[in-house]
Specification:
mainly alpha; four-stranded antiparallel sheet
Length: 525
């Protein structure tokens, strides 16, 4: 076949003449790349390709082709036999095998593609220059091209537009151009695929991932990877923080930071016996595990509230230790403090607790302030992270959709796992409030009205893994958190009331404090 002759007749598929060689399909190549390459060298559109080699439903269409038929991950819109006859390659079969190799360490066969693979085209500049794209590029846990070790991008460098990873002709043209005119592949001398380019895996983490041992695969399958889709709402934009290196490092025991020991098994049996005394119809542990009693949820809410108070106390004794006086000044004597004398850390702390624990104003945040109304209605108040889609996470954890279905979970371990997630969400919320306070424009009012301040921006990389009869926690803070804390040290701009000034303020307010002759003589200077 002469490479320069671009002929493609659909009159009779058996006698179709096309500029194509099956040898142009390279290792790890994605179906998008194969079809794009075929359409490019035969001067046809994705729509024409779908209408001619699509399944019966697609070929009958006369109008717009729906999104379900344009999917590249499952290739539902294509007829396997017609595609194989046209390009001399079992595209759907090989694509399925490669996807299976990539997601094999994840236990759930009914996983959602959107949780692990990008909905937008992720490109390597050198690969796309050679008219090549790999399914590995679409895997969210891979951040760099496994062949060239270059960062992947999803937007056009010129117009910043992204490209949906589907078979459509609207944004990415067949001559490898963006609709704005930017060229991704400008190889004019040799328009055919370069035979000198061979995709060779150079990323060690990708090589290790594709060659995990069975014992290592079981560890990953018995893990809860707290990705954002577990708790965020469907309409929220999600980021992909996890990468293969963290998952591979998590297989090492030295990364474990917390463990729920084997005693949980005994506690589970005792808890079930206590429940059965009150409810005789509960005949087995399995029946109990499938029922989430209101009392259990109330207990979990109360524990979560105690976790929140414990974290607040720890922050006051560590990060905010030198700013505790600032918190007292803000919560008790706000009207006496000028706006430019407000401490950002005190604002962050009071804003954080008021939002999480439903305080009416920052005045109620102080431990000696007004007793919060919600404490009498802990069940209605719920978790101190209710702005997230927590009911979805609880359902997934309770009914075995996170862990393998043959891996039952006790009430004790259920509570332990949930509270660890709650504690990390609480801390992430504090850091988000701290970021807001450092860049605030207006001082806080009596009732805070900051909308959508919550986010998972500072949520750490977190994995809970079950090994034998014990649960283990693996955590890694993200670099953005260290940058924020460093920024707090350098740009806090706290007026930092001195002890001398605080004593004068207390004395002026008539507040008793233990007298000290030395400090009094200093104050009188």
């Amino acid at each position: 076949m002469k490479s320069g002759k671009l002929v493609f007749s659909f009159a009779d598929l058996k006698n179709t003449k096309a500029t194509w060689r099956s040898s142009w399909i390279l290792d790890y190549e994605s179906p998008w790349s194969v079809i794009q390459k075929f359409c490019h060298y035969n001067l046809i559109s994705f729509r024409q390709f779908l209408l001619k080699v699509g399944n019966d439903n697609v070929r009958k269409l006369k109008g717009k082709i729906g999104q379900v038929h344009k999917s590249i991950y499952n290739l539902n819109g294509l007829d396997d036999n017609l595609v194989k006859q046209l390009i001399s390659f079992p595209l759907k079969e090989k694509n399925g095998e490669l996807l299976d190799d990539i997601i094999n360490p994840f236990y759930n066969e009914d996983f959602s593609i959107s949780n692990y693979f990008s909905a937008f085209l992720r490109l390597c500049p050198l690969c796309i220059e050679k008219k090549y794209h790999s399914t590995l590029h679409q895997f969210n846990l891979i951040k760099k091209c496994p062949f060239h070790q270059l960062s992947l991008f999803t937007n056009c460098p010129k117009c910043n537009e992204n490209f949906p990873y589907i078979l459509e002709d609207n944004s990415f043209s067949l001559d490898y151009r963006c609709k704005c005119g930017f060229e991704f592949s400008s190889n004019k001398i040799n328009p055919l695929p370069s035979q000198t380019f061979k995709p060779i895996l150079r990323a060690q983490d990708v090589i290790s991932w594709l060659s995990l041992k069975k014992s290592e695969i079981n560890k990953v399958r018995n893990s809860i990877i707290f990705n954002e889709h577990l708790v965020s709402r469907d309409d929220e934009e999600k980021s992909d923080k996890y990468d293969l290196s963290f998952l591979l490092h998590s297989l090492d025991q030295k990364y474990m930071i917390a463990t729920l020991g084997e005693n949980y098994d005994y506690l589970e049996k005792r808890l079930v016996r206590e429940r059965r005394r009150k409810a005789k119809w509960i005949k087995s542990v399995q029946t109990y595990e499938r029922i989430f009693k209101k009392k259990d949820l109330e207990d979990l809410h109360e524990k979560a509230d105690k976790v929140c108070s414990s974290i607040a106390r720890n922050l006051r004794n560590t990060t905010l230790k030198s700013h505790r006086g600032c918190i007292v000044e803000l919560t008790r004597y706000r009207e006496e403090i000028l706006d430019n004398e407000l401490c950002p850390l005190a604002i962050a702390y009071s804003l954080w607790r008021a939002r999480l624990q439903r305080f009416h104003s920052y005045k109620d945040v102080d431990n000696e302030g007004t007793q919060p109304f919600f404490r009498k209605y802990i069940y209605k108040y719920g978790f101190p992270v209710s702005q997230y889609n927590f009911s979805n996470y609880l359902s997934l954890l309770e009914y075995g959709e996170i862990f393998p279905k043959n891996n039952s979970i006790s009430r004790v371990s259920y509570s332990w796992i949930t509270l660890h997630l709650v504690s990390e969400l609480i801390l992430a919320e504090f850091y988000r409030c701290l970021e807001y306070a450092l860049h605030r424009k207006d001082p806080p009012e009596k009732k805070f009205s900051v909308n959508s301040i919550y986010s998972l921006k500072y949520f750490p990389l977190l994995i809970i893994r079950k090994e034998n009869k014990a649960y283990k926690k693996i955590k890694k803070d993200i670099p953005e958190l260290f940058s924020l804390l460093e920024n707090v040290k350098k740009n806090c701009n706290c007026p930092q009331f001195t002890e001398r000034e605080r004593r004068k303020r207390k004395k002026a307010r008539g507040i008793y404090y233990k007298s000290n002759p030395i400090t009094e003589s200093i104050d009188n200077i």
